[in-house]
Amino acid sequence: MMRFFRSAFVIARRDFSATVLSKTFIFFLLAPLFPLLFGGVFSSISARVAAQNQRPVIAVIAPKSEFEDLVGARDQMARALGDDRIVKLVGYSPERNLAAQQKHLLASRAPPVRAVLSGGLDHPKLAGALANDPGTVGQLQLLIANARSGSVDKEPDLPVSNVAASSGAEAADRTDTAQIAQTILFILTLMLSTMVLSQLIEEKSNKVIEVIAAAIPIDAMFVGKLFAMLSASVLALLVWMGAGALLIQLVKHGGVQTLPVPAVGWPVFLALAVVYFGMNYLLFGAAFLMIGAQASTAREVQTMSLPATFAQVLLFGFAAKSIGNPNSLWGIAAAVFPLSSPMAMLARAAQEPDLWPHVAGAIWQAIWIAIILRFGAQLFRRTVLKSGPRLPWWKFGRA
Amino acid sequence: MLRQASSGTLAVEAVDLVKDFGETRAVDGVSLAVPTGSIFGLLGPNGAGKTTTLRMLLGIIDPSSGTRLVLGRARPLEAAQEIGYLPEERGLYPAMHARDAIAFMGALRGLPLAEGRRRADLLLAEHGLGDWGRKSIRSLSKGMAQLVQLLGTIIHKPRLIVLDEPFAGLDAINQGRLEELIRREASAGVTVIFSTHVIAHAERLCEEIAIIAKGKVAFYGRVDEARSRLRPIVRLRTRASDGPWRAAIPANARREGGDYVFELPEGGPEPLLKALIDGGAGIETLAIERPGLHDAFVAIAGARTAEAMGQEKPQ
Q: Which residue of chain B is at minimal alpha-carbon distance from A2?
């Protein structure tokens, strides 16, 4: 056994040095900047699109006092729900030819009018393109009702005494923490583990594989390669985590202390995050190493990387089912299925305080890493090195 | 075909090794017994099954059937730390420094990295590459890189060295150096197995050989035995063109220039000489030549196989 790990260490040391001591590792460390840049670009685009999609403008043809009552009702609703969510009202005094005025307003581009409300508060009538917008009609009904009742100026006093936390707020915060942690875990694994696909191409193309296969077990080579990439990734992760914490400290008032506390507490949660990152990486890495080992050219690896990415996205979606209710059937299924287990369990750590499921989860995931690596090494020996007697498929992996 | 070495232990023993790749049988019942401390040659043309046999002996691939015992172990990888292997297709990491590549190969075989680097520096200096130790493999010539890999093969002082077509791609000087290195290792008690399709190397180096053709062992034994399968060749030139002495010349003798060339008759040289002298042949030149390994190879493996092997001549 010692020889096995020593052999794996020789491979890991070589791969780690070759990765970390290369100039390209600098670009690797800069990788998270690109999603941030993309995020910045897309959020500004989203803001612009959102501005263009503001709530519709309703032209109100009514006497001034009635319009003011409606505006008062709107302001009251905007305070409760947010100004962007409530229809905008523009008032117009009634003209003699009401039909012509209504037609003129509906054709107006400044402001762009969606509908015209006329008839005052007593006999309101609405005309406009509202077939697909029942929300606007509903809001106007509420506004008219409130304006009619005269309750706008009679809001009841509601003294509020703030407490640091409540179960409802805590649950919501922890759901956010679970979601954010799971997303970060997914993105990191997505970025890093697909790199493992091409790990054996170098050895296969420069024929070193023959020297290695004659000296050490293929399983040891797989383990070495996987842990080399894990070590390089953890190194990068530490750099990114440090930079991220510094950024939060600088940008967010109160710094990292203001982030919602996960159910197991921050120290345990961070420790579990590292463990589950390792497990997630090793699970996907082992699977990708096995798949990538079958490829003989960089082109084949590229072809394989797209379905591999989609598979990860699918598993992320599956693991996300555990957020909000980790003890549901979906939550438990996501925690049990090996390739979604680390992501689901990290979300659980944010939401549930029990620690024993994490011990069981880590052991379960470790067993599957060993199974996948063992199977991958056997597959490599059989399909790439063409080793051993021909076996029927049901005996495959036992040799 | 398999036989026990007359003295000492066996470094490698293989019994009925078979390897199928799909429907193709690459190796068909190969059995070998390589005595410890000997130089053993595996001869055969390209595609004969030499590399596949070596890969099975090393444990890179498992045989479809048959057994092998390498340095006393049924699973060759368990003896990996005592084996050095130079594959036919040379493989090194191009970005690695020469000394690191040698030390890495040693580390794969259990040699601590620092000791590997120390030995690598010594070996490189010994072979005139002292200044190249800290240069990357990609900056070395093909011959230099090949030497680096060879040094990596012996860095951990193995008991068994397996070289697959080690002379391929080397110039005459480096082929000579390699032969010298193989002899030196063997004299130190190391068993050397090498494959080649150049008969001259085997003839110069090997004590025992196996000739492999189409996946089967066509001959296995000492080089002398291979040669002794053929009768010595007689080359005779006479002053007289005809006479009663002609009866002593075998009917299947061929003429090469002015010479008669034929196998030495069963009775040996004395009756032949007597008949020639008594018959007044007037012997101008007479040579009785021992057949070379190439002739033995032609006789054993067939002319076509020998022709395939003869495509690369020794330098």
A: B110
CB pairs under 8 A between A and B: 78
Query: What's the mean per-residue pLDDT of chain B?
Result: 85
- Asked if the C-beta of A382 comes within 8 angstroms of chain B's C-beta atoms, the answer is no
What would the mean pLDDT of B270-289 be, rounded to a whole number?
88
Instruction: Judge: A215–B109 Cβ closer than 8 Å, yes or no.
Output: yes
Of A6, A206, A212, the CB nearest to B94: A206
Would you place residue B191 in the very low, low, confident or very high pLDDT band (cuts 50, 70, 90)? very high
The domain spans of chain A are: 2-32+168-395, 55-149
| Domain range for B52 | 10-223
Instruction: Give the closest-approach CA distance of A7 to chain B in angstroms.
Output: 6
Query: Distance from B169 to chain A by nearest Cα, in Å?
Result: 16
Q: Label each residue of chain A as H, E or C.
A: CHHHHHHHHHHHHHHHHHHHCCCHHHHHHHCCHHHHHHHHHHHHHHHHHHHHCCCCEEEEECCHHHHHHHHHHHHHHHHHHCHHHCCEEEEECCCCCHHHHHHHHHCCECCEEEEEEECCCCCCEEEECCCCCHHHHHHHHHHHHHHHHCCCCCCCCCCCCCCCCCHHHHHHHHHHHHHHHHHHHHHHHHHHHHHHHHCCHHHHHCCHHHHHHHHCCHHHHHHHHHHHHHHHHHHHHHHHHHHHHHHHHHHCCCHHHHCCCCCCCHHHHHHHHHHHHHHHHHHHHHHHHHHHCCCCCHHHHHHHHHHHHHHHHHHHHHHHCCCCCCCCHHHHHHHHCCCCHHHHHHHHHHHCCCCHHHHHHHHHHHHHHHHHHHHHHHHHHHHHCCCCCCCCHHHCCCC
Using the beta-carbon criterion (under 8 Å), do B104 and A385 form an inter-chain contact? no
Specify the CATH class of A55-149 in words.
Answer: alpha beta
Here the ipTM equals 0.78
**pTM to 2 decimals?**
0.70
Q: What average pLDDT score do residues A326-350 get?
A: 91
Flag if A215 and B91 touch (Cβ within 8 Å).
no
Give the domain CATH number at B34.
3.40.50.300
Are B161 and B210 in the same domain? yes
Digit-coded pLDDT (tens) for B59-93: 998 899 999 999 999 999 999 999 999 998 878 88
What was the pLDDT predicted at A255? 59
One domain, residues B135 and B219: yes
Judgement on whether residues B172 and B34 belong to the same structural domain of the protein: yes
